[in-house]
């Protein structure tokens, strides 16, 4: 099947998925980004993108609906599409036979953690980090051991090693939930960093679970290194999904991949876990990975432009804010401690500026005084958001 090239919204201009939908159209959406706050609030908080569906995805879904193809998922099409995408983009081909369909990334993480840890065992995380890492792990009855990122917002190997020691005290099993790329800082881990992680995890008997949901969203200047492609990662797991890059969170499906020496563990995952993924989800994610590359490239151009624009806007209008452009993801981590707005600057921007950002303290240690801004929007909305933030000061 062939699909038309993405069309520019203005004839003659390059296609920009971030500039297609008007604010009025976006406000008609019923997803949480647009419904959590009153209409006068500009929402740049939760990780949803202000983009239309990629055409190949819309086409695949439309065909499925026309056929009434709305039963249960079957086969390995999603895993095969991921394998081809990962081989083409990252030079790593995950083994289809070591890949399992899961409902979404967070539930996939939960199920993998159940395979390698028991109640009360420790899971190491790197705050500030995506808040559900704390919440889901606690809900599962596992103990959190924090290994905060360094001041440069990168992994601190000494801190990580010390956390591995604490996590495995008394010879207990433990896991490490790695966020790669890292949400909220947009840090993209290098091969050398990941090899050090693998070496240290192996030395302490810690099982690594890499959340690579943001992997397709690595921006120019950095390169995604799949955790399972590094030396020493054979006993690790990775969770991948098309949901962030193609904005498919409402179409539930994700994949858990096991390293060669973790395949036996993954095989113990109960069959019913896969029943939580939706067939339409698997269809949409498969189409995104198979045919959505051109659309993704257009998105990455827009995100690269937006991260530069945000840097300029912050320098000009929010001089007290320190900001490092993300290497990947569409999230920007703003250090607002210089503004004197207290632990939760997002609360002030919301109340006085009517702009919704992610609250830093929700991200755990290191989050106080920070806010997370979602760059996955048009340059106009981004500019207006910063204007409102400056007006709140
Ligand atoms: C790092 C990370 N993992 C997982 C998720 C959620 O993924 P899912 O909806 O597939 O559970 C997000 C959503 O933003 C995320 O940023």
Automatic annotation (TrEMBL):
Secretion signal, residue range per the UniProt entry: none
Look up the domain of life of the source: Bacteria
Task: Report keywords, A-Z.
Answer: Aminotransferase, Lyase, Pyridoxal phosphate, Transferase
- Stretches of the chain forming a coiled coil according to its record: none
Cofactor(s) required for function per UniProt:
pyridoxal 5'-phosphate
Q: Which top EC class is given?
A: lyase
- List the molecular function annotations (GO) for this entry: cysteine-S-conjugate beta-lyase activity; pyridoxal phosphate binding; transaminase activity
* Record-annotated Aminotransferase class I/classII large domain positions: 108-388
| One Pfam entry name | Aminotran_1_2
EC number(s) of the enzyme?
A: 4.4.1.13
Query: Which species is listed as the source?
Result: Streptomyces taklimakanensis
Q: Record keywords: Lyase included?
A: yes
Protein name as annotated? cysteine-S-conjugate beta-lyase
- Its family? Belongs to the class-II pyridoxal-phosphate-dependent aminotransferase family. MalY/PatB cystathionine beta-lyase subfamily.
Q: What InterPro entries does the record tag this protein with?
A: Aminotransferase_I/II_large, Class-II_PLP-Dep_Aminotrans, PyrdxlP-dep_Trfase, PyrdxlP-dep_Trfase_major, PyrdxlP-dep_Trfase_small
